[in-house]
Amino acid sequence: MDGRGDASAGTISKKRKILAIDGGGVKGAFPAAFLAAIEDATGRRIADHFDLIAGTSTGGIIALGLGLGLSARDILRFYEERGRRIFGQAPDGGGLMSRVMLFAQRQGRRARQLVGPAYDPLALREALEGAFGAKRLADSTVRLVIPAYSIGTRSVYVFKTSHHQRFEVDHKQKAVDVALATAAAPTYFPAHALADGALLVDGGVWANNPRGMAAVEAVSVLGWPSESLRILSLGCTDPLYTCPPRAGRVDFALSLNTFFQQGQSVASLGTAKLLCGHTESLPKLFRYSLDVVEGKINLDSASVIGELAGQGSTMARTALPTLRDVFLDERVDPFIPFHLATS
């Protein structure tokens, strides 16, 4: 088998394994730690076990890192060492004056979010350049699908490796640009402009949970039989939110983002389950995330990175037997991109 997995490759009887990672800012420490614990236990790279990895926003950064050869442990260190600087927060252990200044800065950012982005993306860019260097999407050793949104054309914009002969452009994009685009969360970071002028924002505005999108890619683009699909979905916390039955404007205003993302996630779940044929008696989609009280952890809550990492490691320990049976039992075929196979 040539590893491309396109529709012309004929019937595929083996399992096709998909990893989908949600968006969530610094909360990406949870799935990064989950995956690092799996790599530590197996002694193998996560990318060796998946045919396709989809990631949105911070999940897109993790997906890029895995595809470009970083270990999950390396990616976790990215959050631990860079998270506070990206979001302009001082390290723990400061004195009273330091805490007062930190509080004042936090209030200032909240005020700025009323009229514009809270953060300058320079620190994020520098961190990404340190992690990815000059690598491009073409350097990925696994198929990647990473969503963004074009505010100029009001349309979805999905970065893809050249895992189909129609995909002739995206693989030339710098990994740093792909990451900055998918992670440009409205009100937190400004839209990111590509070299060709395309103005993009966070893919989370339409696919914060990318498992449904990944399943569509597998079936409709790659032509993989639905019965062959197995999907591992990793969240960056799920808020415990219930919309009041008689909610008014104030109720919705306070929880609008959570409400719509929750609905989006449910729709994505339904799409993925339908396409992979998931049932209770024959499970094919496996979801691991952390339920938290709504509003307790925001995407810039850098002070909880260590706590989230611990929770991710603990959940991976519990999930490991299931993951060994479903996802870690064999390595996948090497991925050969079309731009290399035809060159």
Task: Give a written overview of the molecule.
The two termini are 19 Å apart. The chain has 11 helices and 10 strands. Helix 1 packs antiparallel against helix 3 (72-86) and helix 3 (72-86) runs antiparallel to helix 5. The chain has 343 residues and is an alpha/beta fold. The protein has helices at residues 29-42, 58-67, 72-86, 96-112, 122-132, 175-182, 204-207, 211-221, 249-276, 305-326, 338-341, and strands at residues 16-21, 52-55, 143-150, 155-160, 192-193, 199-202, 229-234, 238-240, 285-288, 291-293. The chain is 42% helix and 13% strand. Strands 1, 2, 3, 4, 5, 6, 7 and 9 form an 8-stranded mixed sheet that branches. The protein has a two-stranded parallel ribbon with strand order 8-10.
Report the principal-axis shape: globular
Computed structural class: alpha/beta
- Main sheet summary: 8 strands, mixed
Strand and helix order: EHEHHHHEEHEEHHEEHEEHH
The count of helical stretches stands at: 11
End-to-end Cα distance, whole Å, is: 19 Å
Assembly level: single chain
**Poorly predicted runs of 5 or more residues:** 5-13
Q: How many DSSP E strands?
A: 10
- Give the rounded overall mean pLDDT: 88
Helix content percent band: 40-55%
Question: How much of the residues is beta strand, in percent?
Answer: 5-15%
Q: Rounded to an integer, what's the Rg over CA atoms?
A: 20 Å
